[in-house]
Write a structure and sequence with these properties.
The chain is an all-beta fold. The protein has a single domain, classed as Sandwich (Immunoglobulin-like), CATH 2.60.40. It contains no helices and six strands. The chain has strands at residues 7-10, 20-28, 38-41, 45-48, 56-65, 77-80.
């Protein structure tokens, strides 16, 4: 799901003879210059928050095993945050 300031990434699990224990996700705003990556744990989805609205982002990831070995980077995927501001309302009605 993509909003004005979030992008959710999903992927399939990696396999390793020692066992995958972590995924590292890398982000770029131009597809050339990449951040140092963030470790997100042994999960198959991650939600990036506090992104700029109407901005294209590129993502890639690696898997890390119990021995600290890191895989080659995955294919690059791209997504763009939406325009404007999204308001989420929670209504709590009490009757009686």
């Amino acid at each position: 799901m993509t909003t004005h300031n979030t992008i959710t990434l999903n992927w399939t699990s990696a396999s390793d003879n020692v066992g995958v224990v972590n995924y590292r996700i890398f982000k770029s705003e131009d597809g050339i210059n990449w951040d140092a990556g963030i470790d997100v744990g042994n999960v198959l989805t991650y939600r990036y928050a506090n992104l700029k609205s109407e901005t294209q982002y590129w993502f890639s990831q690696t898997a890390l095993d119990e021995s600290g070995n890191q895989s080659f980077r995955s294919n690059i995927v791209t997504d763009k945050t939406l325009e404007g501001i999204q308001f989420d309302y929670i209504l709590d009605f009490k009757i009686g």
